[in-house]
Amino acid sequence: MIRSVLIANRGEIAVRIIRACRDLKIRSVLVYSTADKDSLGVSLADQAICIGPPATAQSYLNKKNIIAAACLARCDAIHPGVGFLSENADFARDVEHAGLIFIGPKSETIALLGNKVAARATALECNLPITPGSSEEIRDLDDAISTAERIGYPIILKAACGGGGRGMRIVYEKKDLANALQIAKKEALAFFGDASVHMERYLENPRHLEIQLLADGQGTVVHLGERDCSVQKNHQKLLEESPSPILTEEMRTRMCQDSVKLFEKLGYRGAGTVEYLVEGNQYYFMEVNARLQVEHPVSELVSGLDLVKAQIEIASGKKLTITQDDVRLKGYALECRINGKSAGTITDLNFPLGPHVRIDSHLLPNSVLSPYYDPLIAKIIVHTPNRDQGLATMLRALSEVRIEGIETNLEEQKLLISSVEFGSGRFGTDLYVKLWEKQEKKSRGK
Amino acid sequence: MIRSVLIANRGEIAVRIIRACRDLKIRSVLVYSTADKDSLGVSLADQAICIGPPATAQSYLNKKNIIAAACLARCDAIHPGVGFLSENADFARDVEHAGLIFIGPKSETIALLGNKVAARATALECNLPITPGSSEEIRDLDDAISTAERIGYPIILKAACGGGGRGMRIVYEKKDLANALQIAKKEALAFFGDASVHMERYLENPRHLEIQLLADGQGTVVHLGERDCSVQKNHQKLLEESPSPILTEEMRTRMCQDSVKLFEKLGYRGAGTVEYLVEGNQYYFMEVNARLQVEHPVSELVSGLDLVKAQIEIASGKKLTITQDDVRLKGYALECRINGKSAGTITDLNFPLGPHVRIDSHLLPNSVLSPYYDPLIAKIIVHTPNRDQGLATMLRALSEVRIEGIETNLEEQKLLISSVEFGSGRFGTDLYVKLWEKQEKKSRGK
Amino acid sequence: MDSIEHMDLASVIALFEESSLGEMELTCSRYSLKFKRQGEGSYVASAPVAGQKTPKAEKPVAESKSEESGVIETITSPIVGTFYLTPAPDAPAYVQVGDLVEEGGIICTIEAMKMMNQLQTDFPCEIVSVLAKPEEMVEFGQPLFTVRRR
Amino acid sequence: MDSIEHMDLASVIALFEESSLGEMELTCSRYSLKFKRQGEGSYVASAPVAGQKTPKAEKPVAESKSEESGVIETITSPIVGTFYLTPAPDAPAYVQVGDLVEEGGIICTIEAMKMMNQLQTDFPCEIVSVLAKPEEMVEFGQPLFTVRRR
Questions:
Q1: CA-CA distance, A166 to A433, in Å (whole number)?
Q2: What is the phi/psi pair of residue D30, to 5°?
Q3: What is the pLDDT of residues C32-71, one digit of tens each?
Q4: Three-class HEC string of chain C
Q5: Residues of chain D scoring pLDDT < 70
Q6: Could you tell me the domains of chain A?
Q7: Nearest to D80 among A49, A53, A98 (CB)
Q8: So what's the pLDDT on residue D67?
Q9: Potential cystine with B229: which of A336, A407, B208, C16 (Cβ 3.0-4.6 Å)?
Q10: Where does residue B235 rank: exposed (0-12), middle (13-18), buried (19+ CB within 10 A)?
């Protein structure tokens, strides 16, 4: 039984979790850095505890202070949110050792999935399609050259323990391999403390799809369909939708079944996502996100389920009361991330309201978009009967947004959503760059 | 085909309709009085036309200016919203005569239902239970005395063409009947231009339930279940929920079937509601609201349908594409009306966001809540798996609301929703008064 | 000289004092001011403002209540309709700039719902300018003419 | 001269007094004022403006950077934990008000995760007051002591 949750995060996801706690009549305790003392989360939480200065290493990544705060505030559990410590196996273990519940997968699961090579190996065991490449660490240059020959260029070198686009090197020709391998190993060591790298075939313009799952760690795994997150800028997702406009029913079924199989094999507990790259009618396992994701509302709207509530209930030891047959995916959902392009005080802020629209945000008029952390201002999510109406409703919602005082990506998002390319559903992860080049050309043309 | 809609209304319902137009890619033209020139609706609509001074008789009830504006702005149709001209048969007829589509029932249907005696007679023909009373006009005092004897005191006298609580007189004893009849007739004449009154048994503490329907006027009628609107203050609804906490499945089925039967008999076209009084396990037909209602979002959330879109599609001649079997009512929805208790400038305004919450409002920070019109600030609607969670989520949402500059009923609403009585689901239309008396006693006790 | 919005208070006060005004009200996007000269009698003001929204440009100028002759006034549309300066397509205009019109003189028609509504002046005046475009829609309160009272 | 919004009250009053005005009202996004000269009637009012959140009271006082002796400074908690003034339940306190402490002197312990973290001063000082409650939680940046530099 969880009566009190410490939230080890900030921003909109902290507010999202506080709201879920309130809905469940659970006490919420939020930790915060001095930079966030006037944040909405701090004012909404039942208790707020300052854990350090703005620098994340000393605050939101300060395991000791966070766990001490949880113990002293008599919390039963810690919710790590997304990012920060949410996929840190050591933290999950420390939380468990402190006698607290970690709201997420078991620490062993996080550790296993945090290693890309181990994750790929597990996926292979479950017969999931993976991109051609090494399922083991690249030993040396000879190994690299022969592996590259086997799978074909372009290839990508990835840090085994990496993530978030760091420590990656794309190689188009053999002559660049030696140098790239050296740099990739150095970066892997620098960023992740482990020089291991592995090699995969590099897909030049794939789609990013992910399957959302819920598992109670007691034998039941259900999926909530896919999210298509192909619209990205520098590997950061901008738009996420469900269902995907390119997926056939047959492919969807296979991807969902594969994902469930993998989670069953892992004995997974909690909410999690299996990410895939899709090219043509082929899909390839990429990685598991062993946590909640920013874009979780998309799946909440199509499924009618509350993923954060579900996480808390699973963590408290409850079995899932739904089976796959109970999951009815209905309509279409689209999420648009409104990001700041500069930090500062938001002098005027107005979000769209009305039917079919959900807003998740942690900002109010006169709030400061902090320069220390990620620049998300709000997630605008719409839920409509179909994609065509979803795009119209999103454009309606965006037209009502008013943000003054800082620069935002609002106009870029409007351009993306109203583009012929996005409307058609046929595009790759390069859509943002393509549209931006077009726009630039237009401006130059004037 | 409707390409352009004139909206003959104001406030949040005007904004609601503009949003639906935008979602349907239809042009919206809003008429407004000089008092509303800085309103959100005026700024959101594709075009806005001033039709008169603040006084409603010269603006929002000014049929001639409204229809002229629709013709001159090349609209195909007029949406009357709720209130004002929405149940005015003459207006509907004038709109039709001007070659425009009236988004609502046929003018004959409105005329028929506007007469309470005629409406009761039609309900009787369909074998709907009606409160004991006269189905015809009370002829004179002798008729009144004998009818009252027959149905038993207390009785209520109602203007045949009345509505909104006006022209009603409750009589508990025979000795008061003569005087009450005289006053009721005078009021009926003064308010509605027709002195006819009829008599019904007066239910002292009933529940107010209503069945929401959609009909295409081409043979298909579907219901979207009930709304329980029993929490009222001076006959004004404060909270509306679906499903009702007191209705048995058997009673619900009968009430819905009766309502569908009545709409089929009427050849009804558009969205409409059948209102009932419920006492114990008896229900009695009260009236038909031949229009959209303020509380329509409650039914939208449980049904997943968009009633305003449906109205526009039906008006444009489309057949309903759903049957009763396609209507799946899911979860629980609760609407809370936030009203101003004073007019003036809203210096600070913040609505709750996040999951399970929908806000319909026409106000922004620094908006003026007009002294000329109804004091609705916002409708907060939550949608959750069940009533218990709905109440928790509504309280969470209300705790995030911030309104400065004017007085509101926010605290009263929190008190109502967190009361043991509302929580139990067992209460009558006197709940507000009862709780308020309790509160007063408490304050006096201090 | 600064724009009104960026003037400092001392300058505003000085301008008022130098003027012959008895009272002054000033509202702009940044602030709102009311002045009243000492001993100006019974007028007591209350401040509106708030919503920093600038008033819409099309705000109809209210007809002046003054009965003084020579005063410039605006005649606004009392209804929604199509504005005509002529009784028929090929007929001459009811009035032209410079015309002197008697009280009750017809100055234009506004067509609404196939009805021609003739607009008459309430007072003798001279037509100073025509503000609305002929054959286009006018809304309630829209300025149609400026006139000079006679 | 400052813009109207950023003027201080004394300057506004001075300007009003120097002027010949009888009444003045001023509203801007930050405040609203009404003045009326004495003897102009009974009314004197001032109105606040809503919005402007008052800053939170618990804002931790940053340690002064000054190296001057005699300066009063606040020592704040560097971690989250339970604050103790004594090394053991029945032991005497590390320090009391009035004590002189050398640089590096232990002034308290903060227990976190079953670890006792002793807090030392960075400079010689005198304990002026104890701000945190013993045996209660302290958060990062919470003021523990005020001290005077020696």
A1: 20
A2: -100, -30
A3: 777 777 654 333 222 333 333 333 323 233 344 456 678 8
A4: CCCHHHCCHHHHHHHHHHCCCCEEEEECCCEEEEEEECCCCCCCCCCCCCCCCCCCCCCCCCCCCCCCCCCEEEEECCCCEEEECCCCCCCCCCCCCCCEECCCCEEEEEEECCEEEEEECCCCEEEEEECCCCCCEECCCCEEEEEEEC
A5: 1-10, 27-34, 37-68
A6: 4-103 (3.40.50.20), 132-201 (3.30.1490.20), 207-442 (3.30.470.20)
A7: A49
A8: 60
A9: B208
A10: exposed
Quote the CA–CA distance of C82 and C84 in Å, as a whole number.
7
pLDDT average, residue stretch A319-345: 96
Residue by residue, what is the 3-state secondary structure of chain D? CCCHHHCCHHHHHHHHHHCCEEEEEEEECCCEEEEECCCCCCCCCEECCCCCCCCCCCCCCCCCCCCCCCCEEEEECCCCEEEECCCCCCCCCCCCCCCEECCCCEEEEEEECCEEEEEECCCCEEEEEECCCCCCEECCCCEEEEEEEC
Helix (H, G, I), strand (E, B) or coil at A392: helix
Quote the percentage of chain A above a pLDDT of 70.
98
Put simply, whether D50 touches B (Cβ < 8 Å) is yes
What pLDDT is recorded for position B337?
98
pLDDT value for C9: 73
Q: Point out the residue among D5, D19, D25 whose CB comes nearest to the CB of C34.
A: D25
Contact A79, A95 (CB under 8 A): no
Model pLDDT, residue D6: 64
CA distance A105 to chain B (A): 23
> Considering CB atoms only, which of A350, A354, A392 is closest to B360?
A354
β-bridge partners, A208: A277
Residue pointed to by tokens 């050591």: A90
Mutation test of the interface with chain D: which of B345, B346, B348, choosing the one with the most D Cβ atoms within 10 A?
B348
Cis peptide before D143 (omega within 30 of 0): no
Q: Before A154, cis peptide (omega within 30)?
A: yes
Q: How confident is the model at residue B217 (pLDDT cuts 50, 70, 90)?
A: very high
d(CA B190, CA B111): 19
Closest CA relative to residue D96, chosen from D83, D110, D111, D107: D107
Nearest CA in chain D to A97: D113
Chain C partners within 8 Å of B51 (Cβ): 80, 139-140
Determine the Cα angle at A164 with ends A162 and A169, to 5°.
65
What is the model's pLDDT at position C60?
33
* The pair of three-digit structure tokens given for residue A305, joined into one six-digit string: 């389920």
